[in-house]
Amino acid sequence: MKESQPKVFMDLERIKKYIPHRDPLLLIDTINEIPNRDKIISSKTHRITDPVFAGHFPKNPIYPGVYYIEAMAQTGAVLIAYIREEEQLFEVKLGVLATIDEVRFRKPTGPDDTVRYEVTVEKRRGPFIWFKGTAFVQDEIAVEGKFSIALGVLKRN
């Protein structure tokens, strides 16, 4: 059973202004709400045409667990970029995953499921931000866990 369409605070094109991710690894469709400086809600509706389902698994499509973690991290990164913009801190900072902890996979999802991600900031220290994230499908927890993002300039040789 499909969920009703979530409300839209930020569409896909606006999300792309805050984070550098692009298809096929931009894993959120919509920012639904930023109720305060420590919480953000996003969502992604899976389609059978999503490239991931061609290989995971063709006869039994299941959304990969690591993609939930990445989607939560992308959601947190949008929140941090949004806050930095509000504070008029326009220096571009790339956020990369630093830690992943206490992750639990509770319910698999697949095509036609809409996943709602709720991500909250737990603490900030220097360039590090710690988050708690939960992925819901029809108000049931699918995945939950904690992670941190390190902000900085990523130099590649």
From TrEMBL:
- Tell me the Gene Ontology biological-process terms attached to this UniProt entry: lipid A biosynthetic process
EC no.?
Answer: 4.2.1.59
Q: Does the keyword Glycosyltransferase apply?
A: no
An example Pfam family from this entry, by short name, is FabA
Q: Name one GO cellular component term.
A: membrane
Sorted UniProt keywords: Cytoplasm, Lipid A biosynthesis, Lipid biosynthesis, Lipid metabolism, Lyase
Compartments annotated for it: namely: Cytoplasm
| Domain of life, source organism | Bacteria
What are the GO MF terms of this UniProt record? (3R)-hydroxyacyl-[acyl-carrier-protein] dehydratase activity
Annotated NCBIfam families:
PRK00006.1 (NF000582)
Q: Describe the task this protein carries out.
A: Involved in unsaturated fatty acids biosynthesis. Catalyzes the dehydration of short chain beta-hydroxyacyl-ACPs and long chain saturated and unsaturated beta-hydroxyacyl-ACPs.
> What is the protein's given name?
3-hydroxyacyl-[acyl-carrier-protein] dehydratase
Q: Which organism is it from?
A: Fluviispira sanaruensis
